[in-house]
## 1
Amino acid sequence: MAEKHTFDDKDLKEIEKLTAKYPDKQSAVLPVLWYAQDKFGHTDPAVQRLVSKTLGVPEAHIRGVVSFYTQFYEKPMGKNVLDVCTCLSCQVSGGYDMLHYIEEKLGIKAGQTTPDGEFSVQSVECLGACGYAPMLQVTNDKFVNHLTREKVDKLIEDLRTGKQPDFESNPMPQHEKGS
Amino acid sequence: MSKDWKSYQPLLVPAIRDLHEISVYEKNNGYQALKKILKNRKTWTPANVVNEVKTANIRGRGGAGFNAGLKWSFMPEPDGEPRYLACNGDESEPGTFKDRKIFEFNPHQFIEGAIIAAYAMQIDVIYVYIRGEYRPFVLKLQDAIDQAYEKGYLGEKILGSDFSVEMHTHMGAGAYICGEESSLMESLEGKRGYPRVKPPFPAQRGLWGRPTTINNIETLANVPLVMQHGADWYLGIGPKTHPGPVLYGISGHVNRPGVYEYQAGMDIMTLINEVAGGVRGGKKLKALIPGGSSTPPLRADMLEGVTMDSESLRDAGSMMGTAGMVVLDEDTDMVELIWRISYFYDHESCGQCTPCREGTGWLEKTLRKIKDGNGEMRDLDLLLAICYRMEGRTICALADAAAWPVRYSIDRFREEFEKKCKKTVYAVA
Ligand SMILES: Cc1cc2nc3c(=O)[nH]c(=O)nc-3n(C[C@H](O)[C@H](O)[C@H](O)COP(=O)(O)O)c2cc1C
Ligand code: SF4
Ligand code: FES
């Protein structure tokens, strides 16, 4: 049976570059899993097998790593994953309100994916944007800060048409004063 | 100490446009400290650099406040085999969002600091471990590293000397525990992030069994300041026991949340009321979490005259931690808040040690019961008993970090907890 997922020559070259950073191949497991997830959208058991073969690291080890780290998707997710922070600073700044609004809007609960496969929603731990709460992260990439219902509406509309959010810079207030 | 804060000029993240570009950084005295060292190798032997940094007493900004130079001095003599520096940019302690400012606005000062650290400890390879959620910032740092290679500050024979060092980024993938230094090393070795039993300490046996030092990003960004201006100058900033500039991350119920840079030892009420614009909506202040979720919350009435440095905060009954200050107004439900913190630690416990794996679960479950109105008075005693069984009995400090907020909140906000518990006494039978 042909494998569902494969790395082509270009991939293998990139992976070689990643491995070269470390004294042994096992140490490249995280970067190679990231590389695989970027390509395939997840690191399900088939992808784990591929990474295991590519690096010559036991499959059981790869599985252990994938299941330890929350950002690796053990199964396919929605095209857009909305990670809403509900931790400490976000909790006290309306993080749960935003989560519930998104859940209602998409008709799913945290941990679920919309039937059309467009969106998954998760309630997550502190993302390091506490001063810009409430906030969420889109598919392990851009942060969307200072959430309001309007901002959520706009974001979901954009994502439906394939438009990803821009990088939001949050300058230090001291810089804004031009001091 | 903080009376002259208004005239303070940022040193870690100065307000200079495009400072992340290497040419701009160079124009603003960037890489001068490194050049000075490499040009005067007789004066600035590795040991002398370690001593200077030790004298400057840079307190680690990753949470524990340990003197950076002293930590460097624990590295054994080189034996010709590889030695490593791991820079900790995991930044996952709730309430903390400061190191990303360095990645975005002044990455070269951190890179320069890491190179100087590598020189001082005769290190061959530097890894920068950054939490996976910071992917946009990893890319920014990588750009800066590429520039530094191009200009000959990294790589073989730096600036024509015989000193060489490599620098690589390594992205985590969502695990708070990987900020703990030995877990970080496991993660760098491509494994699940299970903290290691100490001893051996990283300086003896770290990455791939070799001597390793772990420092926080902000800690290393302080190093060029010390090497350029001298330890005495550095000791003149803020309290001598905890000197230097600090990135204060202020979040929660304030009018102007954000990361601010001032000298260490800033007066807490000044930070809340003047720097961050006071409590939002004209509300009264209820409490402050001074340095990330694991530092015990302080009631508003405990904050009078307390300053942001290890000693003052210790005396007040808390800790400096990461200086990630979470400001809480009078409407904050402390039980909900502490439950959510417990939920975090339960989620993030790696599960190796029974007191932590089971204890964090029990704290979460019991607090959930209380917050949902199903608690009983004796549950408060149960919580304290669980804390007691967790503290100081585990491989790493996550168990303590989980227990402290619970223990101290019950102590300091007991009425609130009691109000939520059913008015029961101990069961008769
Ligand atoms: C559970 C746990 C999580 C930690 N997370 C971080 C972190 O995200 N960033 C960090 O710099 N230090 C973190 N630390 C502290 C590190 O173990 C280590 O002390 C620190 O990186 C050393 O750097 P410093 O001496 O420059 O502060 C954590 C410690 C524990 C116990
Ligand atoms: S204290 Fe908790 S997080 Fe730390 S090693 Fe033990 S189980 Fe893991
Ligand atoms: S608490 Fe939400 S980003 Fe830190």
## 2
Amino acid sequence: MGKERINNLFNKNKKEILSIYLTTGYPEIDSMPVLAEKLAGAGVDFLELGMPYSDPLADGETIQYSSSIALKNGIDFDQYFNQAKAVRQNIDIPLLFMGYFNQVLRIGIDTFLDKCVDSGIDGLIIPDMPPEVYKNKYKPIFDKYDLGLSFLITPTTSDERIKMLDELSSGFVYVVSTSSTTGKTIGFSDSQIDYFKRINKLNLNNPMVIGFGISDKQTFRIANKHSDGAIIGSAFIKALKDSKDIEKTAMEFAQNIIK
Amino acid sequence: MQYEVDKLGFYGKYGGAFIPELLHSNVEELEDNYLKIINSDSFQKEFRALLRDYVGRPSPLYFAKRLSEKYNTKIYLKREDLNHTGAHKINNTIGQILLAKRLGKTRIIAETGAGQHGVATATVCALMDLQCVVYMGEIDIARQAPNVSRMKMLGAEVRPAKSGSKTLKDATNEAIRDWINNPKDTYYLIGSVVGPHPYPDMVALFQSVISEEIKKQLKDKENRDYPDRIIACIGGGSNAAGAYYHYLDDEKVELVSVEAAGLGINSGESAATSVLGSDGVIHGSMTKLMQDKDGQIIEPYSISAGLDYPGIGPLHAHLIESGRSKVLNATDEEAIKAGLLLTRLEGIIPALESAHALAALEKIEFKPEEVTVVNLSGRGDKDMKAYLKNT
Ligand SMILES: Cc1ncc(COP(=O)(O)O)c(C=O)c1O
């Protein structure tokens, strides 16, 4: 299905859209598929499956921690694909991989994209793939596959650049709410709200989904008011970290946001 | 120049700026301004004056007579160890602090391995009265204690990097994350020819004073302005880039880069990036790096904290790939031995990093009339513990 599955979701005109990020291989090597099913069952609209990286530059302590545990657990590329495949067999919501460019380069862009399609992945978030290099060098390869690709927009991105990033994106654009690493801030200031409004006025081609700084029902609501959806990452990983029953925690976490 | 960076920040296929969008505006500000500022008269005047009066440049080019006798050739040492703060690192920190000031930045962050770059950064921050935070791996804090004390005395805050291998790579990650979180007031003062464009080019420019001086000094001493060979150690590769810079297009000068082999290239405890590494992205740059089959970065090892890095600057990746530079390596043991040898032959205690460059002398066949310059990047005060433990 690829990006069509993502497009279908945003075309439904659902009022509030929730995405949750989970680190593949955390807390146990095989936790992800069970957690993904619980989250989907609780009504989460799409999932971001993190591919743990040794040197995740854009991530704060929480996701660094979950990534390092997952790597210690022995998670590797074969398992990202195998686990994603397993998830895809049981649930129908869009699945995105989120990982760093070196991981993609290492196994080869073509091979990676091919395996993504094969595993039922619909879209990709690669925060350190530079749009200029993508445009000049890699776009023809990506174009062979029908996957969504979400570039990041930040509070310091100029309007002109936002339009360029929107042009290159498919599925949705990822609006980073704050100039910070993941898990660093909670809640939204007036200037952040102004920033969301500024992007809205640009009438982008793609839906906009806000991530970073969303941790609970309230921040989820606000984010959705100014966008087409919201992504929760660190807050969910933190909940898992403190949990004795991760399946129950996952379900309750999602229900608390959605209800 | 064949080895100059292109408009997009690439040396051949290496370099560029592979950064999260969160860093785009930080890096763009630098890219838009660095050449304009560095090439201005006022900058050059202040930079040159500080290098002369504060750093103590030009650093001597010393003919090492007894060392030359031992290898039956002519060996000169470029004495970067005599710089203020004891290494080449200060050439770069002086340049970048002047740039940071002109960009109106008020807070300086840096990463450090051996602590030499941290000390050099803390020093220029004291000089310019700017706030200074230095990230340093927990392991390096333990093995380079004297430099930690110096940084603190100079007024810097030393923040331990506790993730990953707890060494230079992780200190660099932490510094980059700090920069993401403080995009407006903070200047990231990087310590080697690594990181996203324009850092590799900028740091090479500031360090190029080394080869600029070698040219003049050799003209005086040898009546020709080039050596047959330059030897330098590479961690990230800044002292080597500086020593090579004005000879990059002069193919008759052989460039020998020495990497740290740790306990041995195939021991699993090594930092010989060009041998063990493959193409990929580290710290915002496409280069050669040590990584596993999944692209996870491998934790390197060397007795020398300044060489304990899993990547190399993109310029060096290009020089190696194109055959312009040749790579040798030295184990911990070989470096210690070479350090002790220089100490006894010439009365100079070299930094462990520089001792790796000296160890390469054992692996080269010299002709008696050949002129070799070894870039003595730093002094060994910080390494006394390691030297004593290994003798
Ligand atoms: C004395 C000395 N030499 C060399 C290095 C390695 O750095 P580079 O390869 O950038 O010259 C260091 C780094 O800390 C150092 O302190």
## 3
Amino acid sequence: MFQIVRKEILNPSIKLMEIEAPYVARKAEPGQFIILRVDEDGERIPLTIADFDRDKGTVTIIFQEVGKTTKLLGSLNEGESILDFVGPLGKPSHLDGVKSAAVIGGGLGTAIAYPQAKKLHSLGARVDSVIGFRNKDLIILEEEMSKVSNRLFVTTDDGSNGTKGFVTDILKRLLEEGNRYDVVIAIGPLVMMKAVSNLTREYGIKTIVSMNPVMIDGTGMCGGCRVTVGGNVKFACVDGPDFDGHQVDFDEAMRRQLMYRNEEKISLEEHECRLRGEKYA
Amino acid sequence: MPNMSLKKVPMPEQNPEARTRNFLEVALGYTGEMAKEEAQRCLNCKHKPCMQGCPVNVNIPGFIEAVAAGDFEKAYHIIKNTNSLPAICGRVCPQETQCEKFCVRGIKGESVGIGRLERFVADWYMSNREQKKGSIARNGRKVAVVGSGPAGLTCAGDLAKMGYEVTIFEAFHTPGGVLMYGIPEFRLPKALVQKEIDYLKQLGVEIKTNMVIGKVLSLNDLMNEGYEAIFIGTGAGLPNFMGIPGENLNGVYSANEFLTRVNLMKAYKFPETDTPVKVGRNVAVVGGGNVAMDAARCAKRLGAENVYIIYRRSEAEMPARLEEVHHAKEEGIIFKLLSNPVRIIGTDDGWVKGIECIEMELGEPDSSGRRRPVPKAGTEHVIDVETVIIAIGQSPNPLISSTTPDLKTNKWGCIVIDENTCATSKEGVFAGGDAVTGAATVILAMGAGKKAAVAIDNYLKAKPNKIKAAE
Ligand SMILES: Cc1cc2nc3c(=O)[nH]c(=O)nc-3n(C[C@H](O)[C@H](O)[C@H](O)COP(=O)(O)OP(=O)(O)OC[C@H]3O[C@@H](n4cnc5c(N)ncnc54)[C@H](O)[C@@H]3O)c2cc1C
Ligand SMILES: Cc1cc2nc3c(=O)[nH]c(=O)nc-3n(C[C@H](O)[C@H](O)[C@H](O)COP(=O)(O)OP(=O)(O)OC[C@H]3O[C@@H](n4cnc5c(N)ncnc54)[C@H](O)[C@@H]3O)c2cc1C
Ligand code: FES
């Protein structure tokens, strides 16, 4: 069992938890993830390692409540435990040697991008960060990101805070103004990562995206997480989750993401029925 | 006077109609009377031909004689001498190509039902006797076992009985390997595998789950934690795909993914459990082994109307156990033999709608000795399906070898060992089971685990005992 030692509510749908998991904390690197299972009948879901503390033996996860498992997880409190927690999985991000970077976070993706910005900053790279949200109530990690960025830009789709528009608008402006980066790191919804990749392709700037296909084992044994990169099939859990954004087949990834949409709805409805004490029909 | 019936005493089974609607065990096992009757078919041949077919040399005539005499306990101990997992092997061994293949009774009529008798004896013992553990003197020396399939479980059990402090490191949240995540409940009840695991715990074996070795800890980390020897029994878990167009369409699974969802994550109880699986009205399973049969029969139980097995050779070459093929047919699985997929066809929005196959014919024998299937031009045809499950084999997972440069593997990714000592190229590291042979059988993995336990014991006895020296 893995105990929740700290819980924070970052916005109405995004929560942070610090979990006691010494083995994971010992080896964790930015870009890697864990897989957890809340309880015996639970699904295995992957979440990025948002932060870790090797001395305390804890790992921080930040998650958005989008369905059954993330809602169930979000309902747990400090002191309670999660049944299974395995990691670190996936390849760490390659950040060595980067002198300048633009880090782009879309919504929850900001939480996944944060450890990378932090690592780049600590390696002495110049970091411009752009984070975008639907509206001001959904903004997360603004302070943390600003601490590890030379410049931080915040956008909201509706203009309720920061610049109105999408993260790509800002990135475009930065590039048009002549800013150049060794690498652009884009993490967020697939459409956003695709848009960033299309933009940076014009400028020939290397772009790393973090893929989030459905996973089960996270060790390369099921192939459910396959993505096509440069025409080759890769297993995101062991070959990724970071890939070259200019090579990823985003359209296929978007399609595959919808594979269980009906079942996810059923699972959530069943969960909510159970919470109301009703029987799911 | 032996029972001269040409046929085996039939095994009670759930009828095909009923069982395709549940996940309960299909074959129900002999009663004591049936077992005795079947045992009396054994002629107790002096030269014991059946034993040469058994990879672990079970004294088959010996245990069958005990069954015939009604001494089931004695029969159990005879089997247990060389086979650690009889309840499992009795159910899943390919007897028709092993012991039963050499049975004299098989020359005219059916061979003695050795597998059925083994299963009976093991089940009888489990429900009538306590597994004895005795008191074992601990020697304080630590051994790590990586992977908890039949190879790892057996190696751990044998070492624990010799007095070693054994810890199993398992990547998944549940131990058991393929026995838990691959082979379905209706063929191998999970409670039975759990009993074997509980027994190991009683022997003092510690099992650490969620431990992906190569990621969470490296082999060197394990050595630094004081493990003096390591056994790698990580199996062959990497799914092979065909490399044909359409394999990434929605609705295409590897058999590993499909079976893991169904068996380990219990998707057949969704939404009571949280992990879903998608099964169309029409399902194609590509392959002809046990894995393909299991996937097809699961799909049927999950509600598919038409389930096709698509296999490129003929029935004679099918590697699946005879009983599984027979059960699959009874359950209405449609066999498309001498047929090979060339592409998977999708709808505009990316879901599987069909699989295009080409007919094959058998040509000259290939390196495996089986006649090579060759496509017949112009015979392409489409089968309408919404789900495709690829069950064309697995290879060893490179997670450990890729993070352990001094561990030698061959070109198929199998760990290279010394046949006699089970030792790998890395000092103190031993290996066995599918990780060494590539996908094989439960009995071979179990045998490898046993052999490695002896080898590890020899190795550690020859090596100075650090703990003793420090005292
Ligand atoms: C490598 C990786 C890192 C991730 N990091 C984070 C993170 O740090 N924070 C965060 O909030 N989310 C992260 N995700 C996404 C997260 O795993 C899903 O949101 C979660 O699984 C949803 O489960 P659910 O039952 O709550 O929702 P569901 O209703 O089951 O699903 C909602 C959506 O989540 C995705 N999803 C569902 N099941 C899985 C699964 N088993 N594996 C992967 N995706 C699934 C699907 O795209 C689905 O459309 C990550 C995904 C991957 C692959
Ligand atoms: C669906 C299916 C049906 C089968 N049917 C039959 C049958 O009827 N009869 C028969 O004889 N054989 C059958 N087989 C084959 C048989 O199951 C295998 O040959 C046997 O299980 C191999 O045993 P093993 O101990 O080598 O490996 P496995 O059973 O594969 O166990 C390996 C274990 O190691 C774990 N592991 C892997 N990597 C790591 C790591 N890095 N760190 C920690 N743990 C790790 C895995 O999670 C797994 O639990 C079947 C196989 C499948 C898939
Ligand atoms: S999650 Fe199973 S192979 Fe990647």
